[in-house]
Amino acid sequence: MPSAMPACSPTRAGPASPTSRRSMLKPSDETPPPSWEEERDRIIGLGERSFKKSYYPELRSNLSRLERFRTLLDFSGELVVLFSLPDGEIVDANTPADPAFDLPAASLIGKPLAALGLSRIDRILAQLNADTGHGEMPLHHETLECLPRQGGTEPQQIDVDFRIALVEGAPYGTLLARNAAPRLAAEARLRLAARVIERSSEGIIITDADCNIIEVNEAFEKITGYGRKEAAGRNPRFLSSGRQDVEFYRHMWQQINETGFWQGEIWNRRQSGETYPEWLSISAIHDDAGRISHYVGTFADITEAKATEARIRHMAHHDFLTGLPNRFLLTDRFQQLAAAAERNNTRFALLFIDLDRFKNVNDTLGHSVGDQLLRDVAARLLSVVRGTDTISRQGGDEFIVLLSDINTPDDAAQAARKLIQLLGEPFTLGEHRITVTPSIGVAVSPEDGNDLDSLLKHADLAMYDAKQQGRNNFQFFRREMNARSLELLLMESDLRQALKKREFELHYQPQLDFGSGEIVSLEALLRWRHPERGLVPPADFIPMAEETGLIVAIGGWVIEEACRQLASWRSNGWPALRVALNLSAAQFREKDLHVRIANALVASDLPAEAIEIEVTESILMSDAESTAATLHALDAMGVRIAIDDFGTGYSSLAYLKRFPVDTLKVDRSFVSNIDDSDEDAAICSAIIGLAHSLHLEVVAEGVETQAQFEWLARAGCHYVQGYLTGRPAPAATCLPAR
Question: How far is CA 338 from CA 97, 148, 162, 444, 453, in A?
Answer without folding.
Answer: 86, 87, 91, 12, 13
